[in-house]
Specification:
By secondary structure, this protein is of the alpha/beta class. About 20% of the residues lie in helices and about 30% in strands. The chain starts with 15 loop residues before the first strand and ends in a 12-residue tail after the last strand. The structure holds S-adenosylmethionine. S-adenosylmethionine binds near residues 331, 355 and 376.
């Protein structure tokens, strides 16, 4: 079958026959049709497919298409575990049609491509490692934000769409979250239902930890009536209003758990505030950050984008009362959680505000310096204004935790211009079945390279 002709009416219904090329960031692969780049979802590199264009205007620089018929499948292809993981279906997953090892190879290729192209680093042997406790890439999501359609059914958005696909059951949901049966209930007066379970698969300690469940509802209209369907006993419910988080029943927060030096620590996370979604990820990242930065007693540490204080907690223990930790976070609720979580550690100061504003102010007014620095920004990355402060702050080591290879590569490029080189990088599959991946890059000042760890490979 040939492709749609330019300017042809109804062209989005015509199928394109495509030879699928390399994977690209975002959960799709690259193909070409009459010289034009087509980003194809539901396909794998090397496949021959028929694809339905979903964005294919005559003047579009590139097109988007969904593979709807696989003429020559890749050896990596598997049957998606969820019936909704198909063209036009739920957009929550990108790679259910690839085996788990293949998904990890695809993610490694994306990271390598970005780091090589944008930042000039060579990572031939990079692998994406599973998160401890991962079970076949399923049943891991301890937090899901469901949208509610006009009839009150909860679901997820299709890819690049605001529509809602009802999701009665999500195979990625942690079993404790599935027990809430969010997608099988009717939600009245609500536009968003965010389900959170904590203690699920948390690091083992001597005391068994009960699972905590919290449901945060966003009303459809500011003063509209919201009614909650019956939920399992002990489930907390909160309402997110423009004035703040309102308790409906139970608590407005959950206790997340990590182990520090073998001892359990509980960290409060309010509402739908940030916490790693995979039950093994927070512990893994905490251990990796402490391993690569190896903070010493009496050192000064910076935790940027600190959330509820996961890394600040580890850094505070490591540097001790003779040291200092400065944590910067823009979300007030997260800072207030961190204040409780770090209660009793007078050597930690918590700054509320955007890192790009707060950090220059602290440098200008207090002559801020750091021995150890942790950056864990959202997807957009830290950006030039923050990374360019490295020569002023002069940390001996930086751990950059990133959930986006593109912004990571860009920022590592800025870091190199600022006199810092990548001395290590590991990648973790903290979001199986999706295109997302978590990286921890280690940066050291260029003059310290003699003692730096070699890059993988
Ligand atoms: C990926 S999360 C990391 C949180 C924490 N490090 C953890 O592991 O739990 C990113 C955090 O950065 C915060 N944030 C986003 N943009 C920010 C900015 N410009 N300045 C400071 N914090 C920001 C978010 O509220 C969120 O808590």
């Amino acid at each position: 079958m040939t492709g749609p002709e330019e300017g042809q009416e109804g062209q989005e219904d015509a199928l394109l026959r495509l030879t699928v090329g390399e994977v690209a960031h975002g959960g799709h692969c690259v193909a070409r049709h009459e010289g034009r780049v087509v980003f194809v979802r539901h396909a794998l590199p090397g496949e021959e497919v028929l694809a339905r264009p979903v964005q294919a205007g005559p003047s579009d620089r590139y097109w988007r298409a969904d593979a709807v018929s696989i003429l020559e499948p890749s050896d990596d292809r598997v049957e998606p575990p969820c019936p909704l993981a198909r063209p036009g279906g739920c957009g929550g997953c990108d790679w259910q049609h690839a085996s788990l090892p293949a998904q990890r190879r695809l993610k490694a290729r994306v990271i390598r491509e970005h780091l090589t192209r944008s930042a000039g680093f060579d990572l031939p042997d990079l692998t994406v490692e599973p998160v401890p406790g991962d079970a076949a890439g399923l049943a891991w999501r301890t937090r899901i934000r469901f949208c509610v359609d006009a009839s009150g059914r909860a679901g997820l958005h299709p890819h690049r769409s605001h529509a809602v696909v009802p999701v009665p059951e999500c195979p990625l949901a942690h079993p404790d979250l599935s027990l809430l049966r969010i997608g099988q209930r009717r939600w009245s007066g609500v536009s968003v239902v965010e389900a959170v379970v904590a203690g699920a698969g948390a690091p083992s300690s001597q005391t068994p930890v009960p699972t905590e469940r919290l449901v945060v509802l966003e009303p459809r209209a500011p003063s509209g009536k919201v009614s909650t369907p019956p939920l399992p006993d002990g489930t907390s419910v909160a309402l997110l209003t423009p004035e703040g988080l309102r308790r409906v029943r139970g608590r407005t927060w959950v206790s997340e758990r990590v182990l520090l030096d073998g001892a359990p620590r509980a960290l409060r996370v309010t509402g739908a505030g940030f916490w790693q979604v995979h039950p093994g990820a927070a512990q893994l990242l905490l251990e990796e950050v402490l391993r690569v930065t190896a903070p010493r007693k009496g050192e000064r540490a910076l935790d940027l984008y600190s959330g509820a204080g996961l890394f600040a907690t580890g850094l505070a223990d490591a540097v001790g009362p003779d040291g200092a930790v400065t944590a910067v976070e823009s979300d007030r609720r997260a800072v207030s959680d961190a204040r409780r979580n770090l209660h009793g550690t007078g050597w930690v100061s918590l700054e509320t505000g955007r890192v790009e504003r707060v950090l220059p102010r602290l440098v200008a007014h207090g002559g801020l310096r750091a021995d150890v620095m942790v950056l864990d920004p959202p997807r957009v990355g830290a950006g030039r204004a923050v990374v360019e402060l490295l020569p002023t702050l002069r940390p001996r080591v930086v751990a950059y935790v990133s959930c986006d290879p593109a912004s990571l590569a860009r920022d590592l490029g800025y870091a190199r211009s600022a006199g810092y080189r990548v001395s290590g990088l590991r990648a973790f599959d903290a979001f199986p079945m999706t295109h997302h991946v978590e990286c921890v890059a280690v940066l050291e000042p260029v003059q310290d390279q003699e003692r730096s760890v070699e890059l993988p490979g």
